[in-house]
Each structure stands twice: as structure tokens, then as C-alpha cells.
Write a structure and sequence with these properties.
Keywords: Signal. This protein is mainly β. It folds into 2 domains: about 35-130, Jelly Rolls (Sandwich), CATH 2.60.120; about 140-234, Jelly Rolls. It has 2 helices and 21 strands. A hairpin with a 2-residue loop joins strand 17 and strand 18 (about 200). The protein starts with a helix and ends with a strand. The relative contact order is 0.17.
Length: about 230
């Protein structure tokens, strides 16, 4: 009898959690967490105005269901195919090249946006997510002037700022823009950079973020050309 009870306990512990949705029906209980508690969203920076987390999701892996409440700038730093799936099971798959910048205006919604994300291609999903914890700053946005830099190409312009792809030849020195409330720098490949007098070993998935004191210039110390995403945040 004891062996039978132990067998029943083992079988029940392996079953998924269910809740009754009505007479004769059942549905899965889905556990939704804040984005900051989702294990594959690793918080790297937190201040009064900004929150930054990184994702490195291997092919075939999915995050837990999580919620977004604030505007989010997603910066994809490696070529990838990724999918977003809602609580209702609706799935959208997108192919995104390295350097893709997308703003999700989640703060416009009265309810949090809930989904999970998976890497559904052959490469990992590598992302730097910048959340804006304050309402849009129209005055800051109005002061952002176009970055007149021959090595830079505009990637995105939205209510939260302006983004550029800076292509740095070996040995090149470029003055960085000083506008906005924050400066995000994210490399698209490994390399060696110098920010003013500070050396920076750039890696894919890494970043630098400055809110007050920020570097005036960047130099490519490596032997090869390097792509660097520059975002002026408001």
C-alpha cells in the first residue's frame, strides 16, 4: 500500500498545474512575473530614469511569461530569428539583423503587456533592453539635433530619442554627441575601443550607459572596422 501511495504522489507531482475555468473545462495556470524577475532578463543598470537588462537566449529556449509596463527600446546586437507569444498563444516570428532598434510604447496601455520570447532560429537572441521609467520628455526630445558625423547612419528616431550605427574604421577617432538624458553605446562585434582615456574591451551583448558625465570621444584601437550603436535617450 505504501508503494502505491508513493507512486501516486510521484505521478501527481509531474502533472501540469490546472485551474477550473468553468464546468467541464480546464486551462493551464500560467505564472506571469515582472520583467525584472524573469531569469533571462538580467538587470545591468537601474536608476530613477532608466532600467537596462540584457538577454542571451539560445536557440529553442523560451523566457517565462513576463509583463512590461514602461516604454522599451530593444536593441538587437546579433542577427537572429525570434518569436513573441502572448498568453492566448498567438505567436509572431520576426527576423532581425544586428543593429535593429525598435521602440515598444508599452506605457500607452492601461494594462501591462504580457508575453514570452523565444529564439526560434539557428542563432541566439542577443538583446540590450532600455526601459524608460519616466514619462516621455518632450523638451529633451526637441533639443536633440541630428548627429552630423560621416561615419554614422541614423537607425531610428522616436519619442524616446535617436539611434545611430557608428561604423568605426581601425584607428578612427569620433566625437560623441552630448545631447539627451542618457547615452547608450553597444558594440555589434568584439573589439577594443577607447573612451577618452579609458580602454574598453567590447563584446557582443555588452554596453556602456552614461547619464551625467559621459565620454567626449571614442577611438577604435583594434585592427578591424567595428560597428557601434549609439542611442541618445530622453
Amino acid at each position: 500500500m505504501l508503494a502505491i501511495r508513493l507512486l501516486l504522489i510521484t505521478l501527481l507531482s509531474t502533472l501540469p498545474a490546472w485551474s477550473l475555468a468553468g464546468e467541464g473545462t480546464q486551462e493551464n495556470v500560467l505564472h506571469v512575473v515582472p520583467v525584472t524577475e524573469e531569469p533571462l532578463h538580467v538587470v545591468r543598470h537601474r536608476s530613477e530614469g532608466f532600467l537596462i537588462y540584457t538577454n542571451w537566449i539560445e536557440p529553442g529556449i523560451w523566457t517565462q511569461y513576463h509583463e512590461h509596463r514602461n516604454d522599451l527600446l530593444a536593441l538587437i546586437v546579433g542577427d537572429t530569428v525570434a518569436s513573441s507569444e502572448s498568453l492566448a498563444g498567438e505567436r509572431r516570428e520576426q527576423t532581425a539583423p544586428a543593429g535593429t532598434l525598435v521602440l515598444f510604447p508599452y506605457s500607452d496601455d492601461s494594462a501591462p503587456y504580457v508575453h514570452r520570447v523565444g529564439a526560434t532560429g539557428e542563432k541566439p537572441f542577443i538583446n540590450v533592453g532600455l526601459e524608460f521609467l519616466r514619462p516621455p520628455a518632450d523638451a529633451c526630445r526637441a533639443k536633440l539635433a541630428p548627429w552630423d558625423e560621416p561615419h554614422a547612419r541614423e537607425l531610428a528616431s522616436n519619442r524616446r530619442g535617436q539611434g545611430y550605427l557608428l561604423t568605426l574604421p581601425s584607428g578612427a577617432v569620433v566625437k560623441l554627441p552630448q545631447d539627451g538624458h542618457g547615452l547608450l553605446l553597444a558594440p555589434l562585434a568584439e573589439g577594443k575601443l577607447q573612451l577618452d582615456l579609458e580602454s574598453w574591451r567590447a563584446i557582443v551583448g555588452g554596453f556602456r550607459f552614461y547619464e551625467e558625465t559621459r565620454p567626449r570621444q571614442v577611438k577604435n584601437l583594434g585592427p578591424s572596422e567595428l560597428g557601434l550603436v549609439v542611442f541618445l535617450a530622453c
